[in-house]
Amino acid sequence: MTITEQHIDQILIPILDQVSDPEIPVLSIMDMGVVRTAAIENDLVKVQITPTYSGCPAMDVIGDDIKKALKEAGYNSEIELILAPAWTTDWITPRGRKALEDYGIAAPLGAEADKDVLLNGKRLVKCTNCGSKNTRLVSQFGSTACKAQFQCEDCQEPFDYFKCLK
Amino acid sequence: MKNENLYKYILGVADNSLILGQRMGELCGHGPSLETDIACTNISLDLFGQVRNYYQYAAKISGDGRSEDDIAMLRKEREYVNVLLVEQPNTDFAYTMARQFLFDVYHLLFLRELEKSKDLTLSAIATKSIKEVSYHQRFSSDWVKRLGDGTQESHEKMQDGIDDLWTYTDELFHQTKADKAMVEEGIGVDVTKLKDKYYQLVDGVLEESTLTIPESKWFQKGGKEGIHTEHLGYLLSELQYMQRAYPKMEW
Predict the structure, then answer these.
(1) Are B124 and A118 an interchain contact pair (Cβ–Cβ within 8 Å)?
(2) How far is A115 from chain B (nearest CA, A)?
(3) How close is the nearest chain B Cα to the Cα of A44, in Å?
(4) Which residue of A138, B94, B101, B185 shows the fewest CB atoms closer than 10 Å?
């Protein structure tokens, strides 16, 4: 039952790419890495998606949006929510990371650096407004379960940081 | 029910998260600061997400058409098998964080073992939950230290919270009949083996927080068998209100 490789039929990629994360509209669900498999089997597209966090309220909407996008492209589809392997921030693509930064959300650091900023007060997260690393953690939990709140001590801009999940 | 022990075992695991999730959710709009308010409700959301995964699985196993909502909302007080610790009320923030901390340390140790379960669904839920619960434990440990090693008043409140709740910690390591059966099948976690490690971790944080480790050896129990403190009834009346007032309602 463990599927470690992501498998998506080439022809479906541009369609799925149009579906965005409802909480972070600049980010496509493909860049987010939540689509694990998508395959055409006898007129039916079977899609497996995995949640970023267990309680992520966006998953139902994402499922509906995928169905709608595929329907518009002429496919009926079946969506399945899978838990293994568990989603990790490593699955966010480089394009996704850039989209996050442009949107004002700092992209996740590596696991060690993430621990240092969240637990040990180190200043490693780059401000999405001015680029300074002189930033401080305001709270480990932000506007959604996947983010923490930061503030830049140079330009004073408050911003979200996407927490590392491994 | 064919897999009655497995069904009961899942509820034993999931009910803790449901009841604690409800307690943390009560702070929505009532947290001591905006940031802590958001953090507590985030933790609540994580727990509810995990609970849904467990109850969906339990509903499937039951084989009699009951749904995850039926399991969450339509049982009577005596049918909930959460530990007494998680149903204790939010009195002040120190108390709330003490309760969270005493559960988080256990929760993380427990999930790391559940990850090795022969049952692939439970193992997958555990793997997913570990990532989230690690953040919960960081958050609550942080507050135990901050308040314990803070002002005289915050220290007293945190010490009171730990002293009060200590009596509920031993129950975490009790086993029901279903627990024992599932351990034997390689599905469940042998919680008795987690006890030493638990107190070692908890004591370490308490010492760092300049708090005194309670010495009392008198422990309360009963939650795992459905015998609860008076607080659970009040919690359930709020939790179940919509389903009781408007049966079968859906979002």
Answers:
(1) no
(2) 10
(3) 25
(4) B185
Collect all residues with Cβ–Cβ distance below 8 Å to A54 and sequence separation of at least 6: B46, B49, B50, B52, B53, B125, B128, B129, B132
A142 and B CB contact within 8 Å: yes
* Amino acid identity, position B220: Q
Residue A143's closest chain B neighbor by CA?
A: B38
Please tell me the total count of domains within chain B. Answer: 1
Q: How far is B138 from chain A (nearest CA, A)?
A: 8
Dump pLDDT digits (tens) for A5-37.
789 999 999 999 999 998 888 899 999 999 999
Q: Is the preceding omega at residue A85 within 30 degrees of 0, hence cis? A: yes
Per the CB < 8 Å rule, is B127 touching A165? no
DSSP state of A161: E
Q: Is residue B86 part of a domain?
A: yes
Torsion, Cα of A99, A102, A108, A114 (10° steps): 180
Q: How far is CA A162 from the centre of its chain?
A: 9
CA distance A54 to B151: 37
Nearest CA in chain A to B37: A141
Over range B87-102, report the average pLDDT. Answer: 97
Whether chain B has a CB inside 8 Å of the CB on A56: the answer is yes
| Cross-chain Cβ contact B46/A141 below 8 Å | no
Q: How far apart are CA B131 and CA B33, in angstroms?
A: 25
> For B153, phi and psi rounded to 5 degrees?
-65, -45
Q: Rounded to a whole number, what is the distance in Å from the CA of A105 to chain B's nearest CA?
A: 18
pLDDT at A4: 58
For residue A54, what is the nearest residue in chain B, using CA coordinates? B49
What range does the domain containing B69 cover? 4-245
Using only the alpha carbons of chain B, give its radius of gyration.
18
Question: Looking at residue A126, what DSSP letter applies?
Answer: P
Q: Residue B144 belongs to a domain with what CATH number? A: 1.20.1260.10
Residue ranges of domains in chain A, CATH in brackets: 7-90 (3.30.300.130), 104-162 (no CATH)
